[in-house]
Amino acid sequence: MPASFQxxxxxxxxxxxxxxxxxxxxxxxxxxxIHRIDMATSLxxxxxxxxxxxxxxxxxxxxxxxxxxxxxxxxxxDATHSVCDICADVAGRIEVPxxxxxxxxxxxxxxxxxxxxxxxxxxEAGGNxxxxxPSSPIRTYLRHYxxxxxxxxxxxxxxxPALHTNPVGIxxxxxxxxxxxxxxxxxxxxxxxxxxxxxxxxxxxxxxxxVERLTTHGEERDAVHFPGIVTFRDFxxxxxxxxxxxxxxxxxxx
Length: 254
Fold this sequence. Notes:
254 residues; mainly alpha
């Protein structure tokens, strides 16, 4: 299949925007101090804004992890470097895919081009795209190929929400903790009956799973998800700042 997209490097501004967004959403820096960060800010100044110079490594590790940089990349920098130095280095390392319009009925279609690109990227990553359609949920593909979606998101500067990772549900954790306490209690009161202890523990775990299932819905149950995005159509329309309306027949047939 001929390439349906081109690759380009991220810009320094795109990397910086991503960092500023993470500072806000992941509490890397207090919200009251985020406005003080610019390209000229040094790494030691970043750590100072947090009130702890030991946090310098946390910033570098964030870059290394978020952009899938080589191991030990974070150790090649020191406090004398600026945010601009870091962003420029990252921008030179990271390539992102940019879709090309597809001509349908004599007219260019950007959304169809991006859908075709997504399908090709997922196929190249090893995904089974045989039954994939614009209306297909992205959850299964996102679970196994989150890096593909992350790269596409970076290319759509600020239009797509950040990937969210859900921790284990609090309901499940509480039920398991309760099961452990009750299991130990049963073990003591039943003169060492492991059967009673294990039965209570397993029952508590099952109860936790049921509670978690009933109290969370849709994307909230997925380990990784884009808030508010369910299908490929949602993802693509969000990338172009368009409402997720019913598609044209041309886009549907891709």
